[in-house]
Amino acid sequence: MILGNLLYIIFSGVAYGVLLFLMSAGLAVTQGLMRFANLAHAAFAMLGGYLAVTLMNSYGWPFLLTLPIAALGTALFAGTLERLLFRRFYNVSQLYQIMLTVGIVSMSVASVTFIWGSVNQPVRMPSYLSGSIQVGNFDIDVYRLFLIVAGGLVVWALIWGIDSTSFGAKVRAAVDNRRVTSSCGINVDRLFMTAFFIGSALAGLGGALSVNLVGLSPTFALDFLAYVLIVVTLGGHGSMKGALVAALLLGVVDVAGKYYVPQTGPFIIYALTVVVLFWRPHGLFAKA
Amino acid sequence: MTAIEIPAPAPVVTPQERAHKVFAFTSRWRWEEIAFWVVAALSILIFPTHLVLIAQVLITGLFALSFDLLVGYAGIPSLGHAAFFGIGAYTAGLLARAGWTEPISGLLIAALVAGIAGFALSVVVSRLTGIGLIMITLGVGLLLYEAAHSARGITGGDDGLSGINIAPIFGHFQFDFYGKTAVVYTYVVVFLLYLLARRIVNSPFGLEMKGIRENVRRVPAIGIPLRKRYMVVFTVSAAFAGVAGALLGQITQTVALSALSFDRSAAALIMVMIGGMGTLIGALVGAAAYMVAQDRLSDLNPVYWNFWVGLLLVLFVLFARGGLIGGVDRLIVWIRSKRKKS
Questions:
Q1: pLDDT exceeds cutoff 70 at B2
Q2: Which of A37, A109, A264 has the CB atom closest to B134's CB atom?
Q3: What ranges in A215-264 are assigned the alpha helix state H?
Q4: Which of A31, A103, A113 sits opposite B310 (nearest CB)?
Q5: By the number of CB atoms within 10 A of the CB, which of B88, B142, B192, B240 ranks highest?
C-alpha cells in the first residue's frame, strides 16, 4: 500500500513536472540569452490554455487539434509583444523590465476576466484521454500517461535541438557569452527572436495541456508565475537539463505535499525553495 | 609706472567643502516636498469626513517610501515587500491583543521584528541578482501569506485579527470614532519617518546606495562592501515597512490577511513608478494618486481597475520613467528655459 502510494505520487509528480517544464523552458532560455526578466511568461501559458478551451468549447474542435493552434497562437502573440515592446528593454535596468512585465500580467489578468469571466473553465477530454487503465493492482490515469509520453517527446526534441543542432549550438554560445557570439557573425537578435517564439509556443502548449489537470481561471498567470520562476531559478539560467530536473523535482514534491499534508497548500514548495536558495543561491546546477 | 593689478587669489575650495556644497544642494527641500506635506495637513482640515482615507494614504505612502529606499535608491527589485508590512501589522496586532496596548512602543517593536526578518532575508538576498532575487522575494512573500493563512490559531487565518484595543497616545489622546486622533498620529509618525529617510539618503551612506544602483560593479572597486550595504538597506527598508503595517493595524484596529498579499507588493511597485523612483516624495505622491483614484473609482469593476493600472504602468515605464515628480521637474526646467529666452 505504501509502495502503491509512492508510485502514484511519483507518476503524478512526473506528469506535473513535465507540464511545469514546458511552461518554464522558454523562460529559462530567453532569460539566459538576454537576461530579460519576463514575468509575463506564465501569462503566455494562460493564453494558450484559453485558446485551447475556446476552440474546444465554442467551436467543437477535437482536443488534440487545439494543441498546435494554442502553441502557434501564443507564440504569435508573444512574438509581436517582443518585437513591439520587450526589445526596447534589453539594455535597461532590470527594474524597468519587471515593471513592464508586471503591467502586462495585470492587463492580461483583467482582459482574460473581461472576455472569459472569472470562473474556472470547464473542459471535457475525449474519451480516449480520460479514465484509467489497470495494470496489476495499480490504476494508471490515462491523461497523465499521455502527458508523460507526449510531453516527454517534446522535452526530448527540445533537449536534442539544443544539444545537437547548429541552432542549439548558437543558443548555447550566446547564453555563455553574447558579445563574443555576435562578434562571430551570429545575429543574436534574430536568434533571440526565434528562441522567444519557440519558448512562447512551448508555454502555450503547456498551458493548453495543463487545463485538464489544474483548471483554468484568470489567476493562472499569477499562480504559475511563482512555479515558473522557481523552476528557472533552481535549474540555473539557460540550462535546459537543469530546468528539467528542477521541474520534475518540483512536480513530485508538490504532489507529495498535497497528498500527505493537504492543509498546508503550496507552503512546502515555497519553504523548500527558500531553503535551497539559502544553500545554493545560483540554483542546484550552477556552474562554479 | 602703471600699477600691475594682481588678481586676488582664487579662494581655495577643499574637497571637503565641495562635498558639503553638493550635499547641501542635493538635500535641499524641494517645493514638491513642501507642497505635499502642506496639502496633506490642509486636507485633514478641509475633508473631516475622509480622515480614514487620508490616514490610509499616508500609511500606504510610508510603505511605498520603504519600497523606494530598496528599489529606487539601492536598485534592489522585490516582489514580496508586503511580507514586512504584514509582519509589522501582525506584530502590532498580536502585541495589543496580548495586553501591550501602548501604541508608540508597539510601533518600535513592530519595526524591530520586521527589521530582524528583513535582516534574515538579506543574508540570502544579498547573494542573488536578477531573476533569482525576484524569485526569492516573491517566494518569501507567498510563503508568509500561506503561513498566516494556515496558522488560524495565531493570525485568525482568513478572518484576520480584529478588536485590537490601543491605549491613548501618551496616555492622553484617545483614538476616537471619527479618526481624528488616528490621522494626526499617522501624519506625525509618517512625517518623522520621512525626515529620517531623507537623512539616510542624503548621507554618505545614501550616496553609496545610489552608487550601487548606478553601477554595481564599480562600487566594490572603490572599497565599499557591497553585501553589507545590501543587508543594511534591506533591513532598514523592512523596518520602515513594518512601521507602516503596524500603523494600519493600530488605527483600523484590525489586521487583515491582505496585509501580506501579493497585490500589496505589486501596488508598491506601481506607486513608486507613478510617483517617480528614487525621489522619496514620489513614493508618497504616487501612493496618494493611486489611493485617491482607487477610492474615486471604487464603483468600477476591479477587473477594469487592474487593466488600467497595468496599462498605466506600461506607459510610464515606456515614456515617463521619472514618474510624476520627474515630469514636474522637466516642466520646471522647460518653463525656466522659456523665461530666460524671453
A1: no
A2: A37
A3: 220-235, 240-260
A4: A103
A5: B88
